[in-house]
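Example 4.3 (complexes with small molecules)
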Amino acid sequence: MSGFSPEWLALREPYDARARSPAVLDAVAASLSRYPSIRIVDLACGTGSTLRALAPRLPAQQNWRLADNDLSLLARATAMPRPAGVTVTAVPLDLNRDLEAVLDGPVDLITASALLDLVSEEWLERLAVETAARSIPFYAALSYDGRIELDPSDPFDAAIVAAVNAHQRTDKGFGPALGPAAASCAIARFEKFGYSVIHGASDWVIESDDRDIQMEIFAGWASAAREIDNLSLADTAAWLTRRRDIVTAGRSSICVGHVDVFARPMGTR
Ligand SMILES: C[S@@+](CC[C@H](N)C(=O)[O-])C[C@H]1O[C@@H](n2cnc3c(N)ncnc32)[C@H](O)[C@@H]1O
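Answer. The structure with S-adenosylmethionine bound is encoded below.
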């Protein structure tokens, strides 16, 4: 499964949904509760996971502008069943090139999930400038923060985690990625623009029975380690084999640290 394949997004969605910080979700919902209808722009929507997580908590009349550069993900996002009162518009575009275009027109909330760790510091600054200029609240869920706990441990875990975190900082189409620094950088940027920011942990808690997602995660981490090349091919392959055996035996659990952020212009809404 590739990083943004529909299969991977479907596999991770239940873990994302469980992980989303309830305190941050409550703050988003409370800030919009008095609106009869709202207009939301979801950046890098994938198949629409943020809409599915947030729509039940927002006023009944919602228009979602779903933006992504992957037409097949966008098609899935717009084809999914939706609650009555929820309309969607697909916006196919490259957010690195055309961010400003998707923010044009009336918008009450900008959302993103699993996006900020892919973007560069420069792009995040651009997003914060454009969002603050329009005085729009911003909800960004599930930014990876660099914390990984593995049980049981393995002598090569530290090298693999170091490789994953180094790989996180490579260019994902927006310039050198923020990776684990994404959430803290977003908090600082929005506070600089006078926003009130709350944040909460949204860690993936993956138990021993969750074999499929663990197999995918470990395969992804092994290929990140190969690209970073801080471990030999033989050591990486041996680590992956040991990890897979433990998963198959039902003895592996992992925690992957994420952070949710809600930034709200002060004195409004
Ligand atoms: C990790 S997925 C997250 C998808 C969705 N938000 C979710 O939480 O399931 C990252 C998404 O970013 C989109 N993406 C990556 N680079 C992009 C770009 N330059 N412009 C628009 N979308 C992009 C991918 O197509 C993918 O849907």
